[in-house]
Design brief:
Blueprint: E1 3-4, E2 7-10, H1 12-19, H2 23-31, E3 39-42, E4 45-49, H3 51-64, H4 70-83, H5 86-106, E5 112-113, H6 114-121, H7 125-133, E6 140-141, E7 147-149, H8 151-165, H9 180-203, H10 209-258
Antiparallel strand pairs: 1-2, 2-4, 3-4, 5-7, 6-7
Length: 259
């Protein structure tokens, strides 16, 4: 078996066998930047470091058990490699596992199918499907293999249905793609918040971390949500005032030029 810097190199067939992930999926991960490029030794021959095995397993776990979209997984992998220590990641893991359990306990509603959600909320099927394509929401298969949406995604769909009912309709030019801006910014903000949480608590690790970290995380989410909502409203009002002032200035300049 060939080696690179003293490390064993694997063929694609070895990766497929050891991870249980299809060849096409592994190529997709590479093309998406989730995995580094392999060592090319010929037009149709490439070798992969053994680290690919654990990385592929981690990607699948984050997808299937944490239901994270690939864009978030890519950001987590790239940021974790360069900036987060083992202690930081351990804090995030402990806090995150507890937070997910709390989220499950809070969820009182059963998952809903695409058709049922569309019928109940009045949101067209294509809107919900487009929201999923833009990774605003994500679905999971139920025991029958049917695509369903969980509580957190149901809340997003219901909120979007209310946005439509409030007048921001597709006919007025408010396509689902416009709201990708919110998802992208929130995604970046969420990753930075999790990194800060990991770093700060790893510096002063609580004695009963498995109990305290999830509670700290839950409180932070709720309180910062309120904080962000107030700051966002304030900044929108300030932006409206600034643009209104600019409009008044332009009108005054036009009036001066006409004299």
């Amino acid at each position: 078996m060939p080696e690179k810097d003293g490390k064993k190199l694997l063929k694609m067939s070895d990766l497929v066998e050891r991870t249980g992930v299809r060849r096409q999926t592994i190529h997709f991960y590479i093309n998406s930047g989730l995995l580094p490029p392999p060592l090319k030794t010929g037009k149709n021959m490439a070798y992969y470091e053994e680290t690919f095995v654990e990385r592929i397993r981690l990607i699948k776990e984050l997808q299937l058990k944490r239901f994270l979209p690939l864009s978030v997984i890519k950001e987590i992998l790239s940021q974790a490699e360069g900036e987060l220590s083992i202690s930081d990641l351990n804090v995030i893991k402990i806090g995150g596992e507890g937070l997910l359990k709390l989220e499950e306990l809070k969820s009182a509603r059963e998952p809903e199918s695409l058709a049922r959600l569309s019928n109940r909320t009045g949101l067209p099927l294509e809107d919900i499907e487009e929201m999923e394509r833009w990774e605003l929401i994500s679905s999971v298969p139920n025991e029958h293999g049917e695509k369903v949406y969980r509580d957190s995604d149901i809340r997003i769909i219901e909120a979007f249905a209310n946005i439509r009912k409030g007048g921001l309709t597709k006919e007025r030019g408010f396509g689902v793609d416009l709201f990708r801006l919110h998802a992208d910014f929130i995604n970046m903000l969420a990753i930075e918040e999790v990194k800060i949480f990991g770093r700060k608590f790893s510096e002063n690790f609580p004695e009963d971390a498995s109990v305290l970290l999830p509670k700290f995380a839950e409180n932070a989410i709720e309180n910062i949500n309120t904080f962000i909502n107030h700051v966002r409203r304030k900044k929108i009002l300030e932006a409206v005032q600034a643009f209104s002032q600019k409009s008044d200035n332009n009108r005054n300049m036009q009036a001066e030029n006409m004299r």
